[in-house]
Design a protein that fits this description.
Elements lengths: L9 H4 L7 H23 L9 E6 L3 H18 L3 E5 H7 L1 H4 L6 E6 L4 E8 L2 E7 L5 H11 L7 H8 L24 H13 L5 H29 L5 E5 L6 H14 L2 E3 L10 H13 L23
Parallel strand pairs: 1-2, 3-6, 6-7
Antiparallel strand pairs: 3-4, 4-5
Helix pairs in contact: 2-3, 4-11, 6-8, 6-9, 7-9, 9-10
């Protein structure tokens, strides 16, 4: 990896308590040209040194995706180089191969703001879905609880931070779908239980917030461990367990999953923290992996707000 440039938009969205699609798209349009110049300079290369151009083409907020994909297409067309439309989820799925010597297949738990799912990664473009959330993603649940506790955006890291001072056993929150024979998750009922508990308290003290955060986080962890153990049972021949996505940055969840892997004699593998949250390096790496297999895309490829991994082409 010769260069990795990032421009955060958190400050732009913070006053609104979440990502505003229009603001995000305009920021992409404004910031991307300078970021590209910065990356070329950091890598100490020229336009002529580029072999191919990859960009996220979905799934996600379509405004920002359109800006990135159209910019990548323009560069590819001008340089007459291959264009690779990368699925954002495949980027998360393959990042670990950029940083670790890991072979296929491996079991992946993808936990991010918008996605929570188990996949067997058989090869580039070949993913077997074992289960996922039937309502909210883990990251969404953390952000919602942060709002209920009047914490700033992004809320997930702040919930984890105040949970360190809390009692995880003070409140008994539900553990949805635990013990079920599949690998699915559900977090909407858990969010509702937290909201109802907050409404019962006469006044929300700082200790109340910490105890709620700790109890909520413990419930999330119990669900993740139960579902992961079920995934191990469904894929007993796979010894490598990979966790990716922004929620992987949560130390409490990560440590409990590591312990579970030790108990089941599975290898716990995770990309570096900076490559767990959304980043350009994972898209570039996925573009490289697909290019190696001759998987390029026509410039007429249309970005998609929804793009399940099962729809990826491998030929």
């Amino acid at each position: 990896m010769l260069a990795h440039c990032l421009q955060s938009q958190i400050a732009d969205h913070q006053p609104h308590g979440g990502v505003v699609p229009e603001i995000a798209a305009r920021a992409h349009l404004h910031l991307l040209p300078q970021l590209i110049k910065q990356a070329l300079k950091q890598a100490n290369i020229s336009w002529n040194d580029i072999t191919a151009v990859a960009a996220t083409a979905g799934p996600g907020l379509i405004g920002g995706i359109l800006v990135g994909a159209m910019t990548a297409k323009a560069i590819a067309a001008a340089l007459q180089k291959p264009f690779i439309a990368v699925n954002h989820l495949e980027g998360h799925a393959l990042t670990v191969r950029l940083t670790h010597a890991i072979n296929f297949p491996y079991l992946l738990l993808l936990v991010s703001g918008g996605h929570t799912q188990f996949l067997i990664v058989h090869d580039v473009g070949h993913y077997e879905y074992l289960g996922g959330t039937i309502d909210d993603a883990v990251g969404e649940a953390f952000d919602k609880i942060a709002q209920l506790l009047s914490l700033d955006y992004p809320g997930g890291p702040l919930v984890e931070k105040i949970a360190l001072k809390g009692d995880p056993q003070r409140f008994s929150f539900p553990r949805p779908l635990m013990g079920k024979p599949d690998c699915n998750f559900s977090f909407s009922g858990l969010k509702t239980a937290v909201r109802l508990q907050i409404e019962k308290l006469p006044a929300l003290t700082e200790q109340d917030k910490a105890d709620i955060a700790a109890s909520f986080q413990a419930a999330i962890a119990d669900c993740l461990l139960d579902r992961t153990a079920r995934a191990f049972a469904l894929a007993p021949h796979i010894d490598q367990f990979v966790i990716a996505g922004g929620v992987a940055a949560n130390a409490y969840l990560r440590e409990r999953l590591q312990k579970l892997c030790q108990e089941h004699r599975k290898d716990f593998i995770m990309p570096p923290m900076a490559l767990c949250t959304d980043n350009a390096a994972m898209i570039a790496w996925t573009g490289f992996e697909r290019l190696q297999k001759g998987l390029t895309d026509d410039l007429s490829f249309s970005p998609r707000p929804r793009w399940p991994l099962k729809e990826l082409s491998t030929s």
